[in-house]
Design a protein that fits this description.
The protein is an alpha/beta fold and 300 residues long. Helix content is 40%, strand content 16%. The protein has an 8-stranded parallel β-sheet with strand order 2-4-5-6-7-8-9-10. It has a two-stranded parallel ribbon with strand order 1-3. The longest helix has 21 residues, at 146-166.
Length: 300
């Protein structure tokens, strides 16, 4: 198990990139919450991104383990971070990987003429035994305008086929593109296990997901008091298809919004969701843990 710098041979070294810092954010680490009564999983995190203090991936995983987070899905968004994710999953039993080209990255690959080559590399990584999802892929009409949407659609459909070919889950990034994502899934055929990562829809999309057996993964945004669409969606979601994630280092749950996020904070989101649903937090933790293993398989 990694213990410090030099203990690994991951592509890109300790970090691939640092999160942009505007100098205005509070970059101190939130205090760890008490563990829940049953182990849980963070089904979407980005340990390759450095945010704030020196908190390398092995420290993040150790902190998560102490907080009762038994495992994480480490997610790639381009070829480099996907290779890093797969390498980390090979060497640390607490990690499974997801690999993909993020929809906002797809137009750049297309413009450079390397989209097919990059997709072929994702396809090869998806064959590895500890790579359990293709993601995050999907559509993002917030950051990418019409000029890049053709590449996004082509990349998304290619990722869907990769997930189906390898029999693993699909993790969807969906921003301001709900109807287009659903249309694509229904037209080309969704993989058996389809996950809306960082679910950002409303009650209507939650009901559509329930109809088709798609999973909804809730991030720290569901803890925000003004996230009424997420609260309404959670209320009608199929409990057997609810997952929890951090999307760390982003989307830190309340009351630490804006500070660095990490998998050890997952219990905060579970407790907030349980309060919204008026159920025991340990009961919901057990349900989300079982759902996670059903979606991705065992970490053992």
């Amino acid at each position: 198990m990694p213990e410090g710098p030099g203990a690994t041979a991951l592509p890109g070294g300790e970090y691939i990139r640092e999160r942009f810092d505007d100098g205005k954010r509070d970059l101190s680490r939130p205090e760890a919450p008490a563990p829940l009564g049953v182990p849980i999983y963070d089904n979407h995190t980005h340990l390759e991104i450095k945010d704030g203090d020196d908190f390398p991936y092995w420290a993040a995983l150790d902190a998560a383990e102490r907080a009762g987070v038994a495992g994480v899905i480490q997610v790639g968004g381009d070829v480099e971070s996907s290779e890093w994710s797969a390498a980390l999953a090979r060497q640390d039993a607490r990690v499974l990987a997801a690999v993909a080209l993020h929809p906002n990255e797809a137009p750049g690959y297309a413009e450079a003429g390397t989209l097919d080559e990059a997709l072929a590399r994702i396809d090869a990584l998806a064959a590895e035994p500890r790579v359990r999802a293709v993601g995050e892929t999907g559509l993002d009409f917030f950051r990418t305008g019409e000029e890049g949407q053709r590449a996004q659609h082509a990349s998304f459909e290619a990722h869907i086929e990769i997930a189906k070919r390898h029999g693993i889950a699909l993790q969807i990034h969906d921003r301001d593109a709900h109807d287009a994502v659903v249309e694509t899934l229904l037209r080309v055929g969704a993989p058996e296990t389809t996950v809306f990562h960082c679910f950002s829809g409303d009650e209507r999309l939650a009901r559509i997901a329930a109809e088709h057996g798609w999973y909804l993964s809730f991030a720290g945004t569901v803890t925000f008091s003004n996230a009424r669409n997420l609260h309404a969606a959670l209320a009608v979601a199929d409990r057997s298809r609810i997952l929890v994630e951090t999307d760390a280092p982003f989307l830190t749950p309340a009351p630490f919004r804006g500070r660095p996020n990490s998998p050890y904070l997952t219990p905060l989101t579970v407790r907030s969701m349980a309060e919204r649903l008026s159920v025991d937090a340990d009961e919901l933790a057990a349900e989300t843990a079982a759902n996670t293993v059903r979606a991705y398989g065992s970490w053992d």
